[in-house]
């Protein structure tokens, strides 16, 4: 499976590619978590919004919103781990 990447331009005009870790919805809002690469422990949370030009990523900077995103991510990972465990079991 090919990794999805997103290119972002920083404040200085430099373009950098990030790997999409996961996309998910919370209360009718779509979020994406991005990482610099597979080895990086740093993950950046963005809210996906729309404007007249298409999708726009807004970095999540509000602590309460970031905590909400982190909690939703942890729950998704727990669900995925449980599904993997269930697939590995034989009856």
TrEMBL record:
Which domain of life, per UniProt? Bacteria
Pfam families attached to this UniProt entry = DUF1292
Instruction: List the signal peptide residues.
Output: none
Similarity comment: family membership:
Belongs to the UPF0473 family.
Q: What is this protein called?
A: UPF0473 protein GH810_01405
């Amino acid at each position: 499976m090919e990794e999805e990447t997103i290119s972002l331009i920083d404040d200085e005009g430099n373009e950098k590619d990030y790997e999409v870790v996961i996309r998910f919805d919370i209360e009718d809002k779509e979020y994406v978590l991005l990482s610099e690469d597979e080895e990086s422990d740093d993950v950046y949370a963005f809210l996906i919004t729309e404007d007249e030009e298409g999708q726009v990523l807004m970095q999540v900077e509000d602590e309460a919103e970031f905590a909400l995103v982190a909690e939703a991510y942890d729950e998704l990972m727990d669900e995925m781990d449980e599904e993997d465990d269930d697939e590995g079991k034989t009856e």
